[in-house]
Amino acid sequence: MRRVEIHAVITGTSANTVFDTLSDFRHYVDLVDTVVSVEMHRETGKEAESSWVVKFRNGLLKWTERDWFKREELKMEFEQIDGDFEEFMGTWNIEQQGSDVKVALIVDFDFGIPSLESIVNPVAVRVLTDVTKQILIGLFGKGVQFSDATQGAMLELSA
Hints:
- With 159 residues, the protein is an alpha+beta fold.
- The chain is built from 3 helices and 9 strands; from the N terminus they run E-H-H-E-E-E-E-E-E-H-E-E.
- A hairpin with a 5-residue loop joins strand 2 and strand 3.
C-alpha cells in the first residue's frame, strides 16, 4: 500500500471555513480539468457517499467512496466502497494555527496489481498531489503555501 501526504497552510482564514469549503466536493470539477465528475449521494451532514471520475493516464479512474464529516474534530475521512482501486482511503486534517489554517491530506491506496506498481504508483502519486494542489489553490487562492513534505512523499505501508 502507498501513502501520499500533501501539507499546506492557508493564510488569513478560519478552520471552519476551510472545512465547509473542502467538504463540498462538487466544486472540484470547476477547479481542475483532471476531475471529470463528482456526484454526492445520501448526504446527512455527517456522512455521505460520493462518486468520482478522474482522468488517469490514458483513461478514467472511477470509484464511489463513503465520506465522514467530523466537524468537531475538523476532519474528513473517506474510504472507497466500490471502484478501480483495490483499496483507497484517506483523511483531510484541518487545524487552526493563529490566523492561518494547516491542512493535510493523507491518502493510502493500492491498485492491487503488483506487477504494475512501479509504473502506476508514481503516476498516481503525481496526479493526486497535483490535483490536490490545484484544488486548494482554486478554492483558497494565493493564500495557500505548500510545505516541503508536499512533494508527493511515498511511503510503503505493510498490510
